[in-house]
């Protein structure tokens, strides 16, 4: 039987892990061995933009997060290449998507877990937005701008769906596929608003008029 004092000591020890400086954490290594150097450079450039909104506490944190996000791109590339290879074989084709989905599931949650060692929840949100081209904020802000009479519960629902779309888009194999995920959710949002009584055609026309009057580009 474990004593209450022992349990308390364990909890205290675990809580102190959050206070360990990032410089003392095991550094995330860039897993670029065997990969085309031009491809690696392209990914690193993309990641630099993905995480540019984050204010890092030190260079070690920046490097760790950069490597985590870059390695996720490498991992996704490997997962989808394996899927495509399995689909070429008649024997493995039926299970190709299932194998892919299983690996994506583990990879998806591993990303957030690794980032949490160096970033706050809000900073992780910034990284996710960076990877998904900022579509959540752009779409949410545009929807509120187009329909200023939206109720609070409607705003909450719209944002929740957009963030759900973002989670799925994080696993998509390309920018095009990411936008396709958001496109499906935008359709869901539009259907929801129509059912709530909004005339989207009229709302959009009025929105364009307001933007033109304010000198904004529709």
The parts where pLDDT drops under 50 for at least 5 residues are: 10-19
Strands, total number: 0
End-to-end gap = 68 Å
Helix-strand topology string: HHHHHHHHH
What is the overall silhouette? globular
What features would you highlight for this structure?
single chain; 218 residues; mainly alpha; 2 domains; 9 helices; globular
Q: If you had to describe this structure to a student in words, what would you say it looks like?
A:
The protein has 218 residues and is mostly helical. The protein has helices spanning 4-16, 37-50, 59-88, 96-115, 121-131, 135-146, 152-169, 175-195, 200-213. The chain has 9 helices and no strands.
Write the layout of secondary structure elements.
Layout: H1 4-16, H2 37-50, H3 59-88, H4 96-115, H5 121-131, H6 135-146, H7 152-169, H8 175-195, H9 200-213
Helix pairs in contact: 2-3, 3-4, 6-7, 7-8
Give the gist of this structure.
With 218 residues, this protein is mainly alpha-helical. The protein has nine helices and no strands. The protein has helices spanning 4-16, 37-50, 59-88, 96-115, 121-131, 135-146, 152-169, 175-195, 200-213.
């Amino acid at each position: 039987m474990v004593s209450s004092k022992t349990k308390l000591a364990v909890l205290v020890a675990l809580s102190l892990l959050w206070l360990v400086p990032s410089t003392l954490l095991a550094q995330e290594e860039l897993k670029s061995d065997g990969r085309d150097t031009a491809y690696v450079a392209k990914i690193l450039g993309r990641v630099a933009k993905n995480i540019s909104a984050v204010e890092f506490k030190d260079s070690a944190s920046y490097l760790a997060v950069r490597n985590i996000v870059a390695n996720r791109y490498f991992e996704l590339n490997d997962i989808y290449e394996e899927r495509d290879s399995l689909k070429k074989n008649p024997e493995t084709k039926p299970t190709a998507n299932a194998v892919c989905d299983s690996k994506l599931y583990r990879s998806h949650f591993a990303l957030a877990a690794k980032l949490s060692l160096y970033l706050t929840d809000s900073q992780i949100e910034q990284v996710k937005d960076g990877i998904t081209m900022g579509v959540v904020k752009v779409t949410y802000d545009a929807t509120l701008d187009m329909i200023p009479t939206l109720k609070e519960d409607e705003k909450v629902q719209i944002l929740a769906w957009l963030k759900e779309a973002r989670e799925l888009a994080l696993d998509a194999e390309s920018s095009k596929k990411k936008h396709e995920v958001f496109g499906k959710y935008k359709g869901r949002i539009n259907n929801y608003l129509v059912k709530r009584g909004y005339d989207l055609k009229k709302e959009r026309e009025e929105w364009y008029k307001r933007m033109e009057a304010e000198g904004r580009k529709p």
